[in-house]
Amino acid sequence: MIIDEQTRRKLRLMGADQLLDAFERQDERACATMPVNERIMLAVDDAYSTWADRKITAMGKRAKPRYPQADLRTLDLIDERKLDRNAINQLQSCAFIGQRLNILLTGATGSGKSWLACAIVKQACRNSYRSLYTRMPDLAEQLDTATGKPAGVRKLVRKYSTYTLLVLDEWLLDKPDERMRSFLLEIMEHRYDTVSTVFVTQYPVKDWHERLGGDVTADAIMDRIVHNGITINTGEYNMRRHHAHPTTTN
């Protein structure tokens, strides 16, 4: 399709570069006998695919996953891991996000918890869900910084309350102090039954209450996590050892 320079300029000014590029990618000989409306539909589909791919890529970068290459489509389902295939299928469909459920990822060190969490983030971004991955030590640093600013903590709570999917890695690796517990309770209160949170930890769920302080604050935090949570255990099998490249000696 021949597009004059003035029309090209207008399309670019309107930010329709992808549509213009799609028209220019069309093969003139292949499309010569095609009705104009069909050519337009093909160009729009082409431009939309480009736009969607770029959007997913941008969302993935903003989500800041620890392992950007992680992908549920390439998840290693070897028998030794004993992963629940039905649970993995639910992660792939992101049905749990639509149902506003939490995911409780537990398992031994090296069992692939963080990798799986990052793969969940990527899948959520593919489905246009605003997502974020963060580690608890990084969250603690942000809380320290926010505490010294006017309304800083309130703004931080608001920030972490708005993500449709939030991953908290290294959950309860260190026992939280009173300030962190109050902060976590505020976040969980805002997120409860509204959006989904993924908790990633080597501690089984039965140990969380004690690590949260074992008091009424711990009761309140747990109450907002476990009652609408799906527990997935990644087992004891060490995936780092499984994927390690053997070294050779001379």
Summarize it.
The protein has helices spanning 5-13, 17-25, 28-31, 36-63, 85-93, 95-98, 113-126, 136-147, 152-161, 178-191, 208-211, 216-223, 239-243; strands at residues 102-106, 131-135, 165-169, 196-201, 229-233. With 250 residues, it is an alpha/beta fold. Strand 3 (165-169), helix 10 and strand 4 form a beta-alpha-beta unit.
Oligomeric organization of the protein chains: single chain
| Cross-sheet strand order for the largest sheet | 2-3-4-1-5
User: If you average the pLDDT, what whole number results?
Assistant: 87
What count of helical segments does DSSP give? 13
Structural class comes to: alpha/beta
Q: Helix share of residues? A: 40-55%
Can you count the beta strands?
A: 5
Strand content: 5-15%
Given as residue ranges, the uncertain stretches (5+ residues, pLDDT < 50) are none
Radius of gyration of CA atoms, rounded to a whole number: 23 Å
User: What is the global morphology?
Assistant: elongated
Distance between the termini: 63 Å
Order of helices and strands: HHHHHHEHEHHEHEHHEH
Largest sheet: 5 strands, parallel
